[in-house]
Design brief:
This protein is of the alpha+beta class and 220 residues long. It is built from eight helices and eight strands. Strands 1, 2, 3, 4, 5, 6, 7 and 8 form an eight-stranded mixed sheet that branches. Helix 1 packs across helix 3 and helix 3 packs antiparallel against helix 5. The longest helix has 22 residues. The chain is globular.
Length: 220
């Protein structure tokens, strides 16, 4: 799930962070950043309703996500003085959803997540199924995007998405992502995404999965 706050005014200088590929050594830190960034998203508040457990459950989830993306997708981080400040996981067309073989490779992590989430694990499985069904086979899929909460609204999300667009536009392919935070729709719309279909309810009164797509563009 992608999430990022509003970007800063254009007059504010770009953040001093560097963008680089995620390494396995930085995977735990990147998972922690994503967990902290997404802990207040409506979808995850619904799926992980116990406040005291949510962030640790999300860390386990994103350790699995980033581990898979390191092998089968693309992962980037922003770093400031060697410390991870933001992260994004991206899959090329056809790279998502995970195949059965990839699920088996992650069996230990899946078991750990099920143990942590306990009574909420079936809702998480349903959420995974709903998101997987919506990912177009020809699109680059932003599976996760987040910036450390205390460093948000300073342009780091935009830095990460610029790197994402370099990959997407090199192949002149469409892009796709989802969010469950309505405030993020404006942010992603400014980056060229638009809602593509009806929102998918996780419960009768919400929250909703909001699918968004970006039309193919030529690389600059």
């Amino acid at each position: 799930m992608a999430a990022t706050p509003s970007e800063p005014p254009a007059s504010r200088p770009a953040p001093p962070d560097v963008v680089e590929p995620l390494t396995r050594a930085d995977l735990p830190a990147a998972a922690a950043v994503l967990a902290a960034a997404l802990a207040d998203d409506p979808g995850f508040r619904h799926l992980f309703p116990v406040d005291s457990r949510r962030e640790s459950e999300l860390r386990a989830l994103y350790r699995m996500t980033l581990s898979d993306a390191l092998r089968y997708g693309l992962t980037y981080v922003t770093k400031l003085d060697g410390v991870v400040t933001g992260a994004v996981a991206l899959y090329a067309p056809g790279g998502y959803p995970m195949t059965a073989a990839r699920w088996w490779r992650q069996a230990f992590r899946i078991a750990a997540i099920a143990l942590r989430t306990r009574e909420h694990s079936f809702g998480l499985i349903k959420f995974g199924d709903l998101t997987a069904e919506g990912v177009p086979a020809d699109a680059w899929y932003v599976e996760a995007l987040g910036v450390r909460p205390d460093l948000q609204r300073a342009g780091r999300g935009k830095l990460l998405m610029a790197r994402v667009f370099a990959d997407i536009d090199a192949g002149e392919a469409p892009g796709y992502l989802e969010t469950t935070k309505p405030l993020n729709v404006t942010y992603y719309s400014a980056l060229g995404y638009a809602e593509t279909s009806a929102r998918v309810a996780l419960a009768p009164e919400g929250p909703w999965i909001i699918p968004m797509a970006r039309h193919p563009r030529k690389a600059a």
